Amino acid sequence: MSVVEVARDGEVAVIRLNRPEKLNAISTEVERALHKALASGDVRSSGAVILAGEGRAFSAGADISEFEGRSPEDVLRYYNDTGGVYEEIAALPQPTIAAIHGYCLGGALELALALDFRIADDSAVFGFPEVSLGILASSGGLHRVTRLLGPARAKELFLLSERFGADDARRAGVVTEVVEEGKALDRALEIAARLAALPRDAVAVTKQAIDATSASPREAALLIERLAYAALAQTQAAQDAAAGFGS
Ligand code: COA
User: How far away, in angstroms, is 24 Cα from ligand 1 center?
Assistant: First the structure.
């Protein structure tokens, strides 16, 4: 058994963090296995991807036992090595969903935020403990939260909040939907199957266009939209849909 397992449910790839004895703490080994999982045929050929955690937590965050004694050089190398996996998952063309139960702290919340949607069950506990550990969220999470919620709300989350539950996360805009305990993966599978049944190019280009334009000047954003439309309108799926509508 690997610390990251991949399975298929129809057109959906389900990636599971599988280090339950350490609450799926994200070690270098986990990051390396996640990188491998993302490159696997099961993920590459899927129409949607779910990330979940085995055991009693989604994940308790970065593996703190690896923090001690890292030099600045080690840290810089880390981001060009296994630390790049957060951006790899964000860059997947398929829609991605985190199915969250139990703890989702620090680096785990950063990882979940690198996905497109977050379905949390009532047992979920969120938080960014980084500042209390003398560091900061640096796997893209600081930027993602600030872009998602704005600087004032981001400061609340990183500096004022301690742990918070699924309903608070939903109210803050961090979570897409809250479901009853034990149901996060089922609900994520339902949504993922629906997304996987949509025309894949349209889904991928829409996702990528949203990511590319959210921080772009209006003129650039409009140009991206229009060029993306020009490309998508020529695809078989678009042609078939238009023909079907007219007949
Ligand atoms: N890194 C490394 N190991 C971790 C870990 C982490 N982030 N989170 C949990 N673990 C390990 C524990 O050391 C323990 O291992 P052990 O059984 O070999 O001692 C095991 O996972 C179970 O955790 P435990 O602390 O016994 O569970 P708990 O239910 O009492 O507490 C937490 C759960 C999440 C509150 C607690 O583990 C914790 O505070 N973890 C750190 C969370 C954190 O700061 N994450 C952010 C990192 S950026």
Answer: 9
